[in-house]
Amino acid sequence: MRYLTAGESHGPQLTVIIEGLPSQLPFSKDKIDEQLARRQKGYGRGRRMQIEKDQVQILSGVRFGKTTGAPVALVIENKDWTHWKKIMNPDPNPEDAEKRRISRPRPGHADLNGAIKYNHRDMRDVLERSSARETAARVAAGAVARQILEMCGIEIAGHVLRIGEVEAERVLDLPLSEIRRRTEESPVRCLDAQAEQKMMNLIDQAKKEGDSLGGIVEVIVEGVPIGLGSHVQWDRKLDARIAQAVVSINAFKGVEFGIGFEAAQRKGSEVHDEIMWSKERGFYRATNRLGGFEGGMTTGEPIVVRGVMKPIPTLYKPLKSVDIDSKEPFEASIERSDSCAVPAACVVMENVVAWEIAQALLEKFPSDTVDELIDNVARYRERVLEF
Ligand code: EPS
Question: Under the GO molecular function aspect, what terms does this record hold (predicted)?
């Protein structure tokens, strides 16, 4: 299973093509729209989100509510495009070519590197595609993957652990349904009410100062069978593939599993999870410090993965940069942005992780129909219990 996205931030639409979905998968537009709506929310989002109302159109591969096995094409319209038709015109149009031309790269964005690499004198040709608007398309693909996971008894939830200097108190052992319920009610998708208020105050302050904030997001996946991914080759290790997917989300700079970077400070006996067995559960771990992975394969314990997002680099507060035409220094100051997109990024991360797990599931259990997949997973789970 694979997907590609296309589309610019202010072009007419975002497009996703998904190939390799099993047939007969109940395909819910509402469930995709629900994920898209979740991504649009969050305290600290800017004015663009008041313009957009992201909804998916299904263009192929689905008939009478089920996948056919053919590629699925999905489209999300950019409502803002009506204001950008001239600027984003694909036809040769010298009259408008100079309008809104960008010669001033923003520090922290793809602008300068992309312009040099692709030889663009108008950096709009870079930033339109590098914009985090593209994450709406990735969320749509992940929302489809979630529908596969759901049918195989795999659940996912995410929450915000940190925004700037405010860290949430860890809430242990909450059922994922409860995490989903509580984060949906929180404007910053945080489980700790006190931290939530502090996070919101910090976002207000950053906004007032023309600054931006990053943070840490945690995603948990339960019900994953043992043995997704493989130790035998570097590019089949599922934790590594999840790491790539997470760091590829705009502004994400790092990823950790379980206790993560803290493992460096602990002794081996305080890191590794002891192996247990019972008739009801089969093999399991006494703890889950490694976050659900050993040897690039799932252990059957919950996957616990965290991603760190840098503060959005589009700032009202000017940073020094250099104009690519005049080579004169200037102070970059940009009009419209989100001051904090960590709550939205939490939804993006949940969905990109869902995609990687669904893909690994279909690699372990190649199936042309969803019923075959469900049977294969169920039979494997029984075999694992008897191992
Ligand atoms: C973004 C800049 C802003 C954000 C955008 C990402 O858009 P605009 O330039 O139109 O104000 O709102 O995020 C989205 C459009 C989105 O859907 O998340 C950027 O430069 O990355």
Answer: chorismate synthase activity; FMN binding
**Total structural domains within the chain:** 1
Choose one of 40, 49, 80, 133 to mutate for the ligand 1 pocket test, by most ligand atoms within 8 angstroms of C-beta: 133
Token pair in block for residue 237: 């290790």
pLDDT digits (tens, 9 = 90+) for 215-237: 999 999 999 999 999 999 999 99
Among 157, 260, 162, 159, which Cα is nearest to 216's? Answer: 162
Q: Read off the pTM.
A: 0.97
ipTM of this predicted structure: 0.91
The rounded distance, in Å, linking the Cα atoms of 57 and 263 is 45
Which of 62, 48, 58 has the alpha carbon at shortest distance from 131? 48
Which residues make beta-bridge pairs with 255?
A: 307
Nearest CA to ligand 1 atom 17: 133
Nearest Cα neighbor of 242 from 289, 190, 287, 297 is 297
Q: Which residues pair with 283 in a beta bridge?
A: 277
> CATH code at 120?
3.60.150.10
Q: How many CA atoms lie within 13 A of 277 on its CB side?
A: 5
Domain of residue 238 covers 2-386
pLDDT in tens, 37-95: 999 999 999 898 999 999 999 999 999 999 999 999 999 999 999 999 999 999 887 77
Ligand 1 centroid distance, CA of 49 (Å): 8
Q: Which atom of ligand 1 is nearest to the CA of 136?
A: 17
- Smallest CA-to-CA distance from 334 within 111, 77, 81, 54 is with 111
Residue with tokens 């319209």: 77
Atom of ligand 1 nearest to the CA of 344: 18
